[in-house]
Design goal:
The structure is a homodimer of 517-residue chains. Chain A has 517 residues and is mostly helical. Chain A is built from 21 helices and three strands. Chain A has two domains: 164 residues, no CATH class; 336 residues, Neurolysin, domain 3. In chain A, 43% of the residues are buried. Chains A and B meet through helix 2 and helix 3 of A and helix 2 and helix 3 of B.
Chain lengths: 517, 517
């Protein structure tokens, strides 16, 4: 591998910075582990102290990264690079640029802003749960208004640093670095137009499919977790360097390449497909995490980290939505499910019926249970609301009406209460603005990778049907995972697929799967 | 509580030190959690990075605690106390003294010594496991010789700081602060003489007891863990602020008052009494940890910490060996066990038979399975070997012969291999010297507390028989736990029992239980 041969540039400042990032990386790794423990093992009485411990660690990391010494070393290392570019291999160039990024990201934060962010992240999660139970929109409005104000203050600093055209553009850079807002708007408008045409055609065509035979539970919960672990294991998730947990919390991934912890919600014994979907999704995240550059030399360095939420989501959706919904996947799965769940010859468990279940397109109020075709509309709605909120075109109080109107217009259905509408996602409550577009950008990228993978692996469907996912995971590792942050997203995609990112791959994929199969 | 009313002394230096200890305490708490995760959840592939992360945290804590600023503040705070003693309540006085202790303990460590200690602690655990499998004594000898050398280097620094008469005295202060070596020798020689007389009498008397009816398994493993959790719950362990885990590792406790994590070894379905014994032992540790002063003001302060291993062991042995082996405890337990394990009228599960099993005195080669009477001999053997090793009277190579001779002389049995002898404990392999005496000192203290508790709680045996352990846990909390490190061990014991520590309480307890019951 190229990464091995590159000599460390003879800049003492850069070498010190590598040591600094090794140290803050250790603290980040520790924060990851105690945050995962928070979800999987911590007793409830430790809640407030644990929150305090995590934010204390973040404060130490912040102080270490923005020290005067670190700032001086960064400048010195940059001067060294400018004076002796020939001494810098591409991994180190990318690493130095990552260091600058990390520095600036931290340097724009004041203690006050950090504390408010931490408070919102922690209180928001609890508050969201409370409001979901009480349905009290006025509480939500109060909290979200505060979050939007705080987010705008953050965005102003980010926009200044990033030279962003708008505040919202500055925010999406956190999760979709390298994508500009104008292009995303063009793509999303394009997807909106085309999917609005595709959707009725698909609905029409679907009428001719045989009726779905509903799943006939119960499906033993332990057997479901065995299924989930076995599947992500077949995809290459290494359980010697990670684990899959079932908890009461929303699905989430985290940890480090040698300790990747995936969390899915408690399995439901009436429907094994929900937990399987989550496990495949988190498994895709886990594969990315485990296959990042992990050589000791690069451990904890910025260049060895992932490319952000958008590529992360592309990897998760690739396994969950793309591979996990092929007919071949269900051919592999069906006979094994009969054995696993003690339901021989159950007509609901045929490959055809399972495929029909997972590819059924129908309007739904919930993003997380949306099908592959209408999923985009849910994302686009949230994207527009965020954009308008941050650009002061609407207020938090306007969201419910906005939401209802859009759902009615796009999908012909309307939420009957806030839980079916704006309260369904925790993101805004914990201060995550600029995140939602990653799902659809990730879906676009997943489709683009699938297109190229089909060329590169001629017997792809046959291998899926055999439950042999080795070529798939090698392809993803070689083309995406192992590069870490060496390239920006566009370069990485061009190298992997020969094309710049484009929504057309997703449209072709959906047409292929939902109109010609 | 007195702790609430005490005003914080108006010394800015002391106030800064309180903040420093709050911060290092947060890092210590984090290290505790990731160390517990190490045993209960970490995938094996994360081993080396986790070890590195833990020792990095320890290094940060060390640097924070011995900074020039911290040193200056300590001197300033001490001057403030000397000038204005009337402004200092007793909790703050004890806290300042704890701060000085922490400072000195850290200040004598060089980076080199810290790294060697960490290496020994981590490699030693693995090596011990390997040697147990291979039985290769020469490997053990090599490692232990290195550990002894390192321990002596540490002891020299500790002896200087503590003004200890000998190197070994300096080492035992880590685990038994406040006890001097000369007194321990007197007590242990006294116990040795008296127990050597008691032991044959007990063996003789025991012959007249009805034969033990062996336990007739299997005992469902989940039911065993239910039993273990229920019992420590009845003793007052709060599962909202802690948990009990079953793992492949040796039993251990750790965590913080709001997140106490107890670990016992995998339960054995042939014998529920082994895991119950461990759970009661760890439960005793857990109660101490959970009931330390936990008011926000004192969180992470030295005065709010426990008094060290000796008092910790006294609490564990109090629940496990003292209360957990009363006839009344088995009266409570017996009928419930019949139900729990689906063995109605099993003659092995009568209160009388269970009591006979747990109070059977017989020579055994293993410390951990030793009975309450001969347990001391196992500790005394190790104590003498440590003392002689550190004072250069014997070499590591001499241990096996020493061990065999002593076991033969005291108990009339001899190890047939090293696993039955010197390899049975992990302590020395990980660098824990000066620890073993805590078990017998703890046993002495437990007996002393039991003596006083019998006076203070007139219906003690009746309450145990009812499974009502409230008075017991309140008594322990009020007399021991809630004082944290406010008093030294001797003062605490005098306050709790009216007497200075003495081996006579243990001797009376053993005579009472094994010769007159």
């Amino acid at each position: 591998m190229t990464t091995i041969k590159e000599k460390i540039p003879s800049s003492p400042a850069y070498q010190n910075l590598m040591q600094l990032h090794k140290n803050t990386g250790r603290l980040e790794a520790i924060a990851e582990i105690i945050s995962r423990d928070f979800l999987t093992a911590m007793p409830e009485g430790a809640y407030s102290n644990r929150v305090d411990q995590i934010s204390y660690l973040q404060r130490r990391i912040h102080e270490d990264l923005i020290s005067k010494q670190a700032q001086a070393q960064l400048e010195e290392a940059q001067e060294h690079f400018a004076a002796h570019p020939q001494m810098w291999g591409k991994w180190h160039v990318a690493n130095l640029s990552g260091m600058e990024n990390v520095y600036k990201k931290q340097a724009i934060l004041s203690t006050d802003l950090m504390e408010t962010s931490a408070l919102i992240a922690n209180e928001g999660r609890k508050l969201h749960q409370d409001i979901l139970n009480s349905g009290d929109w006025s509480e939500a409005e109060k909290h979200l208004t505060r979050v939007v104000d705080h987010t705008k203050r953050l965005a102003e600093r980010k926009a200044k640093w990033r030279n962003s055209a708008t505040l919202y553009e500055a925010l999406i850079q956190d999760h979709s670095p390298g994508f500009d807002l104008k292009t995303i708007w063009e793509w999303f408008n394009h997807l909106d137009r085309e999917l609005s045409k595709l959707y009725p055609k698909i609905m029409e065509r679907q009428k001719r499919r045989p009726d779905i035979i509903p799943l006939n539970g119960p499906f033993d919960k332990e057997a479901q977790m065995l299924l989930n672990r076995s599947l992500i294991g077949l995809f290459g998730f290494d359980f010697k360097r990670g684990a899959l947990y079932e908890t009461g919390h929303s699905p989430v991934e985290g940890g480090t390449p040698d300790d990747a912890r995936l969390v899915i919600k408690n399995v439901d014994d009436r429907n094994f497909m929900d937990s399987m979907k989550s496990a495949l999704h988190e498994g895709g995240h886990g594969l990315y995490l485990q296959n990042l550059p992990a050589k000791k030399k690069w451990a904890y360095q910025p260049v060895a980290l992932d490319l952000g939420t958008t590529i992360h989501e592309s990897q998760a959706l690739f396994i969950e939505m793309i591979i996990g919904r092929t007919p071949a996947f269900f051919e592999f799965l069906a006979p094994r499910l009969e054995g696993l769940f003690h339901k021989f010859n159950d007509p609901a468990l045929t490959a055809e019926n399972l495929y029909r279940i997972k590819t059924e397109v129908k309007p739904t109020l919930h993003r997380r249970s949306a099908d592959e075709v209408t999923y985009f509309f849910h994302v686009f709605l949230r994207f527009q609301i965020e954009c308008d909120l941050i650009e002061d075109k609407i207020k938090v109080a306007d969201i419910p009406a906005y939401w209802t109107e859009w759902m009615h217009k796009k999908l012909g259905i309307m939420p009957q209460n806030h839980a079916e509408g704006v309260l369904q996602d925790v993101h805004w409550f914990v201060g995550k603005f600029g995140y939602f577009q990653s799902y659809s950008l990730g879906h676009m990228i997943a489709a683009q990778l699938y297109d190229k993978m089909g060329e590169d692996i001629p017997r792809l469907q046959g291998e899926i049907q055999d439950g042999d996912f080795h070529s798939i995971s090698s392809w993803l590792t070689n083309n995406i995972h192992k590069s870490g942050s060496l390239y920006d997203t566009e370069t990485l995609l061009k190298k992997a697929t020969g094309s710049a990112p484009s929504p057309d791959f997703l449209l072709s994929h959906l047409e292929q799967r939902y109109l010609t199969d």
